[in-house]
Amino acid sequence: MCATCGCGQDGAVITLAGHDHPHDHDHPHDHHHDHSHGDHEHTETVSLEQKVLAKNDLIAEQNRQWLAERGILALNVTSSPGAGKTTLLERTIRELGATRTVTVIEGDQETLLDADRIRAAGARAVQVNTGAGCHLDAAMVGRALETLDPEPGTLLFIENVGNLVCPALFDLGEHSKVVVVSVTEGTDKPLKYPHMFAAAGLVILNKIDLLPYVDFDVETCCRHARSVNPDVTILPTSATRGDGLDAWYAWVDAHVNTTPAH
Ligand SMILES: Nc1nc2c(ncn2[C@@H]2O[C@H](COP(=O)(O)OP(=O)(O)O)[C@@H](O)[C@H]2O)c(=O)[nH]1
Ligand SMILES: [Mg+2]
């Protein structure tokens, strides 16, 4: 994880989509990669990882409380780069927008591209640029929530940085993690990245419109996902063609209804 390679997120920049200037800016820090691997350093690294995660969990609980007080359902959407997270969210905003207010926290290392796409689809969004960091953490989401200030009783998507490794370890205060995997990635990803799939409340198997063109067996991928997360719900979708999206909206609705409104 990040504490091991030294990647930091202290320089995260948070920008409200549609505004020219960053809303919240910590100055980037010098970035050191110290890759020596002696026994002593290994012990130090493990304890640093535990401290980083314990601190994160504390802030995640504060986020969870903040969201619960407002009856906001937050879903942390993760995947490898390009699996279709933003496409799924754009379509969800367009199709659910009439009945639900949706806001989005976008995480990427650089650019405002995804926040701009979300805004064009009709939802308010903030972009968190993590710089060298490879995941969102709870502190970034806490700051993004202050900037975004989502209305009580609404639906919040957090699109994580495209990465199936570190986002599995960082609780953001979300209700559930939604892992998107696409048919172009191969059926073995749940086995190779078991922490991410074990943490999933829902797995979306996207780009099924491409099944005729790729060597991908849906049953095998589902079996692999269930080998690390036996009861997980898996929804095959095409975010571009629309297959399976009614089941996705029904899943979201069922979880909105379990979020107490205050
Ligand atoms: N064929 C197909 N392409 C898709 C689908 N969903 C997303 N894409 C394409 O995959 C690429 C990456 O999508 P994007 O939403 O940006 O992925 P992200 O990095 O996970 O946010 C884009 O070219 C999308 O048009 C899908 O269901 N089917
Ligand atoms: Mg995206």
TrEMBL record:
GO MF annotations in UniProt: GTP binding; GTPase activity; nickel cation binding; zinc ion binding
Domain of life the protein comes from: Bacteria
Chain coiled-coil ranges: none
Region annotation Disordered: where it falls in the sequence: 18-47
Comp. bias regions, Basic and acidic residues: 18-44
Stated family: Belongs to the SIMIBI class G3E GTPase family. HypB/HupM subfamily.
PANTHER family xref list: HYDROGENASE MATURATION FACTOR HYPB, HYDROGENASE PROTEIN ASSEMBLY PROTEIN, NICKEL CHAPERONE
Parts of the chain that traverse the membrane: none
One BP term from GO: protein maturation
Protein name in UniProt: Hydrogenase nickel incorporation protein HypB
CDD domains in the record: HypB (cd05390)
Annotated ranges, domain CobW/HypB/UreG nucleotide-binding: 75-235
UniProt KW Hydrolase keyword: yes
